[in-house]
Amino acid sequence: MRIAIAQVSHETNTFSSELTDQAAFSIRSWIEGEEILRRHRGVRDYIGGMIDEAEALGGIELLPTFAAITSPSGYIRSETWAEIKRRVLDGLKAAMPFDAICLELHGAGVAESTGDIEGDLLRTLRLEFGTAMPIAATLDLHGNITERMIDNADMLFGVKEYPHVDMYDRGRDAIQNLGRMLRGALNPRMTLTRLPMVIPTTTTFHGPLKAVNARCAAWEAKPGIVHCAAYHGFPYADSPATCVSVIAIADGDEALAQKATRDVADFIWNQREVFAVSLPGAAEGLETALSCPESPVIVNETSDNPGAGAPGDGTWLLAEMLRRNVAGTCFAHLADAEAVAAAHQAGEGARIRVRLGGKVDVRHGTPLDVEAEVVMNTRCRFITSSPMGKGGERDYGLSTRLRIGNVDVIVTELKSQLLDDEMLKLHGMPMGRYKVIAIKSSQHFRAFFETAAARIVTVDTPGISTFNFDNFAFTSSVKYFYPLTE
User: Fold this and answer.
1) In this structure, are 290 and 253 located in the same domain?
2) Where are the transmembrane segments (predicted)?
3) What is the mean pLDDT of residues 23-44?
4) 481 inside domain
5) Straight-line distance from the first to the last Cα atom of the chain, in angstroms, rounded to the nearest whole number
């Protein structure tokens, strides 16, 4: 069996001022052919799972075509989206003949030319390769799922955990079930139920969404159900596609799949009030963290989360930390290429005056004029040790460790979330040295820090990944959804 694979993944925050072009994708992945397999082999991610499952089953040859992924940001430029589609299509045509297509998608991609890039791509492939071609894809649980995606794919497998520690498993599921289809052992019937509601980017490790996952798992334990997953949706994509939804796949029984999606959707809707979250601001959150008798305490600024398309250079939380100037505190990290360049030019041991952060927009705070000691300059590149994506390379570009008063601050060229302590160790900042470690992330950091930290305190400052939806001027159908309209 020959299965062609491709990757097209972008989570689009339509409130971001940073448009997404080919250069943005090239920072992370804009690659073709065997390089795709080389980069993902041995990594706990979607394609890593596809590779391992194909090898475990035997008799399956994966044909890598094109892979494009970048950090969440604003709208994908029209010309960039057209080029991505062209490269996927050309790559697949060049790989022919094959028996099936397996894709890594996200589910919340928006281009200037379409509000549903995944549905657009799947429809393009369906028209090109016909209804007889098996097509499966993996999806992020923050996908905003549309009928067009359902209509043009045979199977969609969504991660169920947030942090996404099960990406690898979904990649294996996709290949395993495509193999079953090709052997005639599976006749997938897939259904979708969408709910008129949006929810904050909330973890599944505990709380109401853990119960939702248990409901899905109960359905998967029933005969005939292949897969059942709840999609939280991505609330920062102001698109008609945006909402909470449920997908189920059954073997030859569409009515059974529909029964599963409706049951889980009803379970979510009937407890919709419990998803509301009230979070402290920077001052209150730091006060709580500093008063904790144990350490280290992680203070995560969810509202400037690079993993949700925010710039990662916001200064609200950092300004409060510098104002307090408490020894044994650090900030890891802020994205500011100009500050990094100034530190590298000055050299280690120098004292510099620098405008730090707040350069992408004013929503996330204004630049801070600080005097800092350049403690260390390096290239911030390492292998992930977090259970989420373990074994993958992370590259934040050049970086610097600054000491501003009593506070250590890591500044990087490129924005991204902190997933584990590898960045801290690289900059000579072991966790045990600090009372408080401030980061920019919503939930992915929990895959590592849930057990490594003494406590986690989430703070919500002004930003485009805030939990407070009242801060957004939605123009799509989202404005009529719960909780925006009760």
Assistant:
1) no
2) none
3) 97
4) no
5) 51
Mention every residue, 6+ apart, whose C-beta is less than 8 A from residue 288: 280, 457
Asked whether residue 216 falls in the same domain as residue 349, the answer is no
User: SS3 letters for 158-185?
Assistant: ECCCCCCCCHHHHHHHHHHHHHHHHCCC
Largest CA distance in the chain: 69
Q: Which residues pair with 68 in a beta bridge?
A: 8, 30
Distance between CA atoms of residues 50 and 40, nearest Å: 9
Cβ proximity of 248 and 257 under 8 Å: yes
Q: Are residues 288 and 253 in the same domain?
A: no
Whether 308 is covered by a domain: the verdict is yes
Q: What is the spatial distance between Cα 275 and Cα 162, in angstroms, rounded to a whole number?
A: 15
In this structure, the answer to whether residues 240 and 133 fall within a common structural domain is: yes
Range of the domain at 297: 282-466
Give dist(CA 175, CA 57) in Å, integer: 9
User: What pLDDT shows up at residue 485?
Assistant: 86
Co-location of 179 and 62 in the same domain: yes
- How is residue 102 written in tokens? 């397996």
Q: Residue 296: is the preceding peptide bond cis (ω within 30°)?
A: yes
158 and 124 Cβ atoms separated by less than 8 Å: no
What is the pLDDT at residue 486?
67
Domain boundary among 250, 274, 298: 274
How far is 418 from 429, CA to CA, in rounded Å?
14
CB 445 within 8 A of CB 300: yes
255 and 152 both lie in a single domain: yes
Assigned domain for 349 exists: yes
Q: How far apart are CA 312 and CA 316, in angstroms?
A: 11
Beta pairing, strands 368-383 & 2-9: unpaired
287 and 243 Cβ atoms separated by less than 8 Å: no
393 plus 368 within the same structural domain: yes
Rounded Cα distance between 105 and 28, Å, is 15
3-state secondary structure of 286: helix
Burial (Cβ within 10 Å: 0-12, 13-18, ≥19) of residue 184: exposed
What pLDDT, on a 0 to 100 scale, did the predictor assign at position 307? 97
Name the β-bridge partners of 229: 247
Distance CA 40, CA 392 (A): 7
Average the pLDDT over 296-303 and give the result: 99
Coil, helix or strand at residue 346: helix
Residue 166 within any structural domain of the chain: yes
In eight-state DSSP terms, residue 20 is B
pLDDT at 289 over 70: yes
* Rounded Cα distance, 481 and 486, in Å: 8
Amino acid at residue number 32:
E
- Paired tokens of 191: 């259904």
